[in-house]
Write a structure and sequence with these properties.
By secondary structure, the chain is α+β, with helices and mostly antiparallel strands. It contains 13 helices and four strands. The structure holds flavin-adenine dinucleotide.
Length: about 280
Amino acid sequence: MAIQVTLLSHSPEPMRSLYMAYRTCYSQLTPRQIANRIEDERITDAQMKEFIEERLKTGHASPLEQVAFEFGISGVSRAFSHQFVRHRVGISFEQQSQRYVTYKDGEFPFTVPATVEKAGKTGRFQEIMEQIGAGYEELVAAGVPAEDARFLLPNATNTNFKITVNFQSLLHICDLRLCTRAQWEFRKVAALMRSEVNKVVPELGRFLQPKCGELRMGYCDESEKDWAACPIGRVRPHKDVLFRIYESYRKGELQPLRDEDWDTIEEKETAAASEPY
Ligand SMILES: Cc1cc2nc3c(=O)[nH]c(=O)nc-3n(C[C@H](O)[C@H](O)[C@H](O)COP(=O)(O)OP(=O)(O)OC[C@H]3O[C@@H](n4cnc5c(N)ncnc54)[C@H](O)[C@@H]3O)c2cc1C
């Protein structure tokens, strides 16, 4: 079953909500007066965007909780859902129940990871799922309630969610789960949520990045070993490297360009200039 992520709804006028929330903190004007200025276009969309983008560079995050997104998510595994529901703050979940839903004829939807396919084990995987399905059906037919028959079901079993998440929490989820260290399925769901937000509020969607993204922390705080192994590790700096540079700077070890550096630069320029056409 393919993963599906649908943006079902969101706060009306998210940019206006965020602007109002931030501006109220920094203005002598009342919220009503701010709203009037937006309505009569004394404050333009471009000004709101610029102001919000500046605030998003700061740690003033609570106004971001005032905008919410509702998603429908389906075709994800229980392996994913165990991880998803670990996010405790700024997100509400409703998940398909294995107590109230009884799979008919023991047929439950499941995910086959690409690595299983790559290993040429899809057939074997499906065979085991069928055996589990048959066992589940046998228990249900014997009068075992779905809530107990489900003890047989694997992590691969698919599930569905309806969630509401505020923008601050969505940023945090993307920080962690767009990181290449996160599990592939969660990365996929986070990327699909990002893509859905981008369709309706690209001004906000672009901020949904892994934590090392240029619009988030800008550096990696995973272990240096993991950073070195990351496929995008060389694009983003590691925090230890930044601290080493900072320490060198404090100790006065970061020298200004020396005469010989200038010689090198000028030699290069000279060499380039004297190259034949
Ligand atoms: C790559 C990766 C590997 C992981 N591996 C494991 C693993 O091996 N085992 C495992 O159990 N989990 C693992 N997790 C899950 C992880 O530990 C978190 O539970 C999960 O990512 C939710 O993140 P969070 O707590 O930051 O989010 P939220 O629960 O949404 O919290 C948001 C923020 O609020 C803070 N917060 C929330 N509740 C409290 C509180 N009560 N007191 C103080 N601060 C609070 C959090 O610290 C966080 O900063 C892993 C996660 C990732 C991304």
